[in-house]
Design goal:
Trna Endonuclease, Chain: A, domain 1; six-stranded mixed β-sheet; 1 helix; about 15% helix
């Protein structure tokens, strides 16, 4: 299953489910969104909590590149401010792409 055609979709579903469960188990309110526009800009998950939008991209990669966060810029036009973004992936340790976007290992979820 880890190398199958649906592996990326299964990982995305796992991460989204775990994030939703974490908020529900902590009795915290959060809205969850998915974004895709007519130009095929896509954000896998957007958390709206505490007056901020936090974009999340979910990838099977160990070394995700900065190009994965380009679509996060569409949120800069929103009326709600954009907070820290994240790429959740298969990297071993927590790191950052830049000061506003983190790389988070999937097992942190």
């Amino acid at each position: 299953m880890a190398n199958g055609a649906l592996a990326g979709h299964i990982l995305e579903n796992y991460v989204v489910t775990e994030i939703i469960k974490s908020y529900k188990n902590a009795a915290k309110d959060c809205l969850f969104w998915y974004y895709r526009d007519k130009d095929n800009k896509e954000v896998d998950m957007i958390l709206e909590s505490n007056g901020m939008l936090q974009p999340i991209e979910i990838k099977r990669s160990v070394n995700p590149g900065a190009e994965l966060i380009r679509a996060f810029k569409v949120l800069d036009k929103a009326t709600v401010p954009r907070g820290t973004g994240a790429i959740i992936c298969l990297r071993d340790e927590l790191s950052a792409i830049d000061r506003n976007n983190l790389i988070i290992p999937v097992w942190y979820v």
